[in-house]
Amino acid sequence: MSIYEYEVNKINGDTISLEEYRGKVMIIVNTASKCGFSPQYDDLQSLYVQYEEQGLAVLGFPCNQFLNQEPGDDLEIDSYCKLNHGVTFPMFAKVNVNGKEAHPLFSYLAENAPGLMGSKSIKWNFTKFLIDREGNIINRYAPKTKPMEFESDIKKLL
């Protein structure tokens, strides 16, 4: 299965296919507003602004599976991201990233880009997946890895 075959719900409720991002380099990240890693929204936004015209897309997926750090509804999450971090990159509806209720996209990402020691689960908020223009998963970055730390990887793909 290709990453482009997955459908996702935008934060406003509209359903889209990831086919819309074919030909773009993507960072797909599970987010949480009350997480200690939430300052990464700022780095993600900076990268998006700097490289969007060259074909970078940042896709944020709120998740409440880790210590209930994303308790708000989609409207509250959207407002928080815009007001506190100036987020203009696409945000999507809240998802689960692990377990039986995991969104199929995140099951696919975790299966095809295992984490540390081959772990197929997503361990925390702000796990980031870098996808090339052909839809291949290039790398999985740990929550503590700041987006600017892999800017050179992004630039190689643009």
TrEMBL record:
It comes from the Bacteria. Gene3D superfamilies: Glutaredoxin. PANTHER family: GLUTATHIONE PEROXIDASE. PROSITE patterns: GLUTATHIONE_PEROXID_2 (PS00763), GLUTATHIONE_PEROXID_3 (PS51355). This is Glutathione peroxidase. It holds the Pfam family GSHPx. It comes from Peribacillus muralis. Belongs to the glutathione peroxidase family.
